[in-house]
Design brief:
The complex is a heterotrimer of chains A (398), B (154) and C (255). Chain A is mostly helical and 398 residues long. Chain A has helices at residues 2-14, 30-53, 64-85, 94-97, 108-138, 142-150, 159-192, 205-231, 238-269, 274-282, 286-310, 315-341, 343-346, 367-387, and strands spanning 16-17, 353-354. The longest helix of chain A is centred in the middle third of the chain and has 34 residues, at 159-192. Classes of the chains: A mainly alpha (398), B mainly alpha (154), C alpha+beta (255).
């Protein structure tokens, strides 16, 4: 407690201007930056997968299962940053049993459950069922039982049953697209509906969150696909990368336009909060907004992607450039979450001052915890790829 | 011809039905009793507040023993000020009667909190003095009776 | 033929079992969702509907209110947690505004700007506005903060999960997370005192009577009389919070 107070005294000494006395301590820290980042990856990866299934972009077929499993790995971890950030985490179940109907945060539990069970798990199940039945027959011992349980005992792999797998899977994917929009759009709404905070309060917020989510998801699938292909020592299909790159480019342009529109509107209308926000953006947020999110995360990837569309370099160069572009985009989207969450709390609601933010290293809401939640999905994905390898799936006989 | 039901559907419907029923049963036991009585909150929470300790008694409690000081105070400019404004929370003292359980304010800074000169204080609301000039070698109470401030001592 | 009989009796059993299960689940569900069907606003007109008034003309910045609040309500004495605090505004002749609240005003204020530079200066006590359309109550995900039937916004400390959404949603900065209890905390208008016909601690000790509370439904009461005789404003009227804290002589520099 003493060290916590000492921390606050330090921050108090560095407060600029006037802040309301209760505002000295930031309420939402790095874990709340990580949470929308993770759900954004889920929504984005799923949208990419649905491009193949619903919009019949055949070129993306090799990435279909990878995108789904990536989405599942991150979704399984998605609630953890939230729960570990609560100051009463043991009461987290209350949000499921008495959700307050007027609170956007209350729908989270149900949207999450819906998306996890009805959308992701079902879609993966429909896609893998045939292979799981075959694997259950082929394997012995524990693995046999694991696959048997996963099939839920539905062992019918007649052509009629398989065609229903495809039909039902298609329906789920179609339902899944608006579900993905809600899963991540509601996070934007959580911020966008806070009228008390002018940095957050805009109807564009859910849409901005959604588009940057799609950008991050697409970039993530690009990276995961490249890493997996490399580890399996296979030759990568450049057409797949070019196609992903194309979608990344279009969504990034849309994202950039929307965020630009938000800022232009803010600057033009110049409401009462504009003076303090101007100071915020040119001061404390300069590095993370203009350099990390803008330059590194948006402008450089956009220019590179245009370049890659027109000039077909040697394969190795193009692969490296795609990889780096995806990394930069992920850094940019993470910075965007940082700028929204942290930036919105750095200035006082009195519009007359700033506090400062020191990220702790240890503790349930520290950097190490955030890093753990970000890295855990990679472990889960590795496990899922071992359990349900896309490249060992039984080919559907047409 | 019998209606063909794909084999996946009944199995999945069963899985979901089990899951949802488990949830509803758990919920029945977890929702607190008074939840929803007046609105979407636990009504017993309002009763929780009633068990909180009182620290300030209000000056009527002071007058039960100190009516003489009360009468004195009522004659001068501090008449509208309640006892506990200066003497701090009195409930402990009301119960124990011990003088150590209540504050006896002392020192120039204490009176200065109200009376020190500040441009933000309206002159028609309160008399102000410059703490650095007005009788700096004396304690306020050497000349002023806090309960009858204008009845100068000596 | 015997087979048919077994099948039909099995079918009957399954049907009745399913009906029983369905009825049990339905009953459980309906009972738990009772509050969803219940009206949102309790309309007991016999209860007072509390409001607050603060007269800026009368505040002398002594800080007694902020000090007594911490004494009464178990709030840590460190300068980071306040249910109520006092701000001093100093508008200089060049138009710039200094705002300070050292330790919430508990230790009083020193004049930092020389008289000749001051255009005007005043104190503004702040506290929870007990909004009728409270944004903090709107966003609580579990129903741990609520508007009581008397119009006071309260916190259920046994139910709060500490998500801090309410702290973000309050435009007045009057909520905080209690460092020991680890749940949300804020001014309760001394609800535990009101129910015993005692005044809130801050109003009990205010030496100038700058802080008032009362029943907005009582047309003959002190509070309503004050509202009628003075020109009052609420903070952030554009946010439509239904704030029930009315300031007299609120100057445009105040946020």
């Amino acid at each position: 407690m003493e060290s916590h107070y000492q921390n606050l005294y330090d921050i108090l000494a560095h407060a600029q201007g006037y802040i309301f006395p209760n505002e000295i301590d930031l309420q939402w820290g790095i874990l709340i930056v990580v949470y929308p980042f993770i759900t954004g990856l889920v929504a984005g990866a799923f949208i990419l997968a649905s491009l193949e299934r619903v919009f019949k972009v055949k070129i993306l077929k090799p990435t279909y299962q990878i995108a789904l499993l990536t989405a599942l790995s991150f979704l399984l971890v998605a609630t953890m940053p939230l729960i570990s950030h609560l100051s009463q985490p043991q009461r987290a179940y209350e949000i499921m049993i008495t959700p307050h109907s007027s609170s956007a945060m209350a729908i989270f539990g149900f949207v999450y459950l819906w998306y996890l069970t009805v959308v992701l798990l079902l879609e993966i199940w429909f896609d893998y069922r045939q292979s799981m039945v075959v694997w259950a027959n082929e394997k012995k011992g524990a693995m046999k039982w694991i696959y048997k349980i996963l099939t839920l005992g539905v062992n019918d792999i007649s052509p009629r049953a398989l065609s229903w797998d495809r039909k039902l899977g298609y329906i789920i994917t179609v339902v899944g697209i608006p579900s993905a929009f809600i899963l991540h759009g509601y996070v934007g709404f959580i911020f966008g509906s806070i009228k008390a905070n002018p940095w957050w309060s805009t109807p564009l917020m859910p849409i901005i969150f959604l588009f940057s989510a799609m950008v991050s998801g697409i970039a993530l699938v690009m990276i995961v696909y490249m890493v997996i292909t490399y580890l399996r020592k296979k030759v990568i299909d450049l057409n797949v990368l070019d196609s992903i790159g194309k979608y990344l480019f279009f969504v990034l342009i849309l994202d950039f336009t929307l965020e630009g529109l938000d800022q232009i509107h803010r600057i033009y209308v110049a409401e009462e909060s504009f003076e303090i926000i101007k100071l915020l953006v040119s001061g404390k947020l300069y590095l993370t907004l203009f350099i990390a999110q803008g330059l590194i995360g948006t402008i450089i990837p956009l220019i590179t992607l245009v370049f890659l569309q027109f000039y077909k370099h040697k394969i190795k160069v193009r692969k490296t450039m795609y990889f780096i572009v995806s990394l930069l985009v992920l850094i940019g989207v993470y910075s965007m979450r940082w700028n929204v969450v942290i930036g919105g709390q750095l200035f006082s609601k009195s519009f007359s001052g700033f506090t400062s933010f020191k990220v702790g290293l240890i503790g349930l809401d520290g950097t190490l915890m955030a890093a753990f939640w970000l890295l855990l999905p990679i472990g889960i994905l590795t496990f899922l790829l071992w359990l349900l390898p896309p490249w060992k799936m039984v080919e559907v006989e047409e | 011809m019998k209606l063909y039901i794909p084999p996946q559907i009944p199995r999945l419907a069963l899985a979901f039905a089990i899951f949802i029923s488990l949830f509803l049963v758990a919920r029945h036991f977890l929702v607190p009793d008074t939840f929803g009585k007046y609105g979407p909150y636990r009504a017993a929470a309002m009763d929780d507040y009633m068990s909180l300790e009182i620290h300030y008694s209000g000056q009527q409690a002071c007058f039960e023993c100190h009516q003489d000081i009360g009468d004195l105070k009522a004659q001068d400019v501090h008449s509208e000020i309640h006892c506990e404004t200066c003497h701090g929370p009195g409930q402990k003292h009301v119960i124990s009667g011990d003088a150590a359980d209540i504050l006896k304010p002392a020192g120039r800074e204490f009176c200065g909190k109200c009376h020190a000169m500040n441009a933000a204080k309206k002159k028609n609301t309160i008399n102000q003095i410059d703490l650095n000039k007005h009788n700096i070698d004396k304690n306020c109470t050497e000349c002023h009776n806090a309960h009858q401030p204008w009845e100068m001592k000596k | 033929m015997g087979n048919e009989k077994v099948k039909s009796s099995r079918r009957k059993f399954l049907k009745s079992a399913a009906t029983l299960a369905g009825a049990t689940i339905g009953y459980t569900w309906l009972k738990s969702t009772q509050f969803l069907i219940y009206a949102a606003e309790p309309k007991d007109k016999n209860l007072p509907w509390y409001g607050i008034a603060i007269d800026i003309e009368k505040c002398i910045g002594c800080g007694s209110c902020a000090k007594s609040c911490k004494n009464e309500n178990d709030v840590p004495k460190e300068p980071f947690f306040f249910r109520t605090w006092v701000e001093q505004y100093t508008v200089r002749n060049d138009g710039s505004v200094d705002i300070v609240s050292p330790n919430g005003g508990i230790d009083g204020f020193e004049q930092r700007v020389p008289d000749e530079d001051i255009f005007k200066s005043f104190f503004v006590p702040k506290m929870c506005n007990h909004c009728a359309k409270s944004p903090c109550e709107q966003v609580c995900p579990v129903g741990a903060t609520f508007l009581s039937p008397e119009g006071i916004v309260l916190i259920d400390e046994k139910y709060c999960i500490g998500c801090r959404y309410c702290v973000q949603a309050c435009p007045y900065g009057c909520r905080f997370i209690h460092p020991v209890k680890k749940v949300a905390n804020k001014c309760t208008l001394c609800y535990h005192r009101l129910k015993k016909n005692l005044a809130p601690a801050c109003m009990e000790v205010c030496p100038t009577g700058a802080r008032m509370y009362g029943n907005l439904r009582d047309k003959d009461g002190e509070l309503v009389k004050f509202l009628k005789e003075h020109t009052t404003q609420v903070l952030r009227p554009n946010l439509n919070t239904g704030a029930k804290l009315y300031y007299n002589a609120l100057s445009s520099e105040v946020r």
